[in-house]
Amino acid sequence: MSLPLPPRVDPKIWQICVGPDVKIPKIHSKVYYFPRGHLEHACSSPTAATRTILDRYRSSIPCIVSSVDLFVDPHTDEVFAKLLLTPVTDQEPPPPVVPGQEDDDGDNLVSYVKTLTQSDCTRVLCVPIECSNLIFPKLDLDKSQSITVTDLKNQEWRYTYTYSNSSRLHTGWLNFVREKKLVANDSVVFIKNSAGKISVGIRRNTKFTTDEAAEGSENLTDEIKVLDAAELAEKNTAFDVVYYPTASGWRDFVVDAKTVDDAMKIGWKSGMRVKLPLKKYESSNSKMTISQLKGTISFVFNHSSNVPNWRILEVNWDGLDIPQIPNLVNPWQVEVYNIHAPSTSSSTVNNPRLAESSSPQQIPYSMPGTSGTLPDT
């Protein structure tokens, strides 16, 4: 007996919850599926046996996105996408891309992301003035009002909203925090539609690790599910992947085909200077700052292959020794800014196992070059 489907989420609300840097590929668009990236996303410490099995398969499989479904996890309240991927050959012309339908309903949404403090999680929610003006009803000084907010599973929550020196959510708020198991540095996403209905989504700062979530949530897919997907892909049989944006970080493994192909055309060599734009969003108002991380390529793994491979560039970042910044990256994640830099070591290493020897950690930044790319379960 199949399990019931989790609640579906409106595409506009789904996009607001994940943020502007996450882009779901369109139906019938061409992508590459990377089994090793899938394994990184699903398993923090995969076994050597699983790695050995994946070594027998192609490093990447070109696919067409056959369907996209957007859901909310019933255990963690995090949004995720389920993609049906159909492997294709180079001789098969892709079907026409289906235009997005998310802007057709005419509903105008406004939103605000509030990163929670310790006080927010233990006392009351202090609502910034910008959030009050955008989302909540106007109140006179020292007045209060009961408001209803609906979560993405369509459950209603009633709060007491007050305005004194600042706006706050009181009665009912801590019940919401306990039920959702929210902690400091998690975020709540308030969304209001043109009819005045207020919804709330959740962005978790770290992976949800309760026993219930570990047993029931698809974003904690084990190695067996990764191997099943990789085996189906190798046999050119359609397969499902599940993508949790908050768990992606550096592990996007379903990637827009043109993005990959363009990056693989570059003659990558050791000694090249590259830059990595890092986008960071301020905690409460979602304003973005961009910094440039620069480094030098020290090794290139398997670039002679016609098949795109996973993490073929090893980069020494300038003046940094931070574990959260991976030194093994994909070509589509970086930009060349000095192609004539002198070589410092051998340019290419044809050993696929070297390129997967370390498991980079997720960092609290948005990775460049991932527009139209996805990870999965």
From TrEMBL:
Q: How does it assemble?
A: Homodimers and heterodimers.
What GO MF terms are annotated?
DNA binding
Sections of the chain in a coiled coil? none
According to its UniProt record, where is this protein located? Nucleus
Q: Which PANTHER family match?
A: AUXIN RESPONSE FACTOR 17, AUXIN RESPONSE FACTOR 4-RELATED
Kindly give the Gene3D superfamilies that the UniProt entry links to this protein: 2.30.30.1040, DNA-binding pseudobarrel domain
Q: What is a biological process (GO) this protein takes part in? A: regulation of DNA-templated transcription
Highest taxon in the source lineage? Eukaryota
The role this protein plays is: Auxin response factors (ARFs) are transcriptional factors that bind specifically to the DNA sequence 5'-TGTCTC-3' found in the auxin-responsive promoter elements (AuxREs).
Q: What are the record keywords, sorted?
A: Auxin signaling pathway, DNA-binding, Nucleus, Transcription, Transcription regulation
Q: Which Pfam families match?
A: ARF_AD, B3
What is the native source organism of this protein?
Medicago truncatula (Barrel medic)
| Annotated SMART domains | B3
Record protein name field: Auxin response factor
Q: What are the GO cellular component annotations?
A: nucleus
- Give the main localization category: nucleus
Q: Which family does it belong to?
A: Belongs to the ARF family.
Q: Which residues form the TF-B3 domain?
A: 110-206
Q: Quick one: where's region Disordered?
A: 343-377
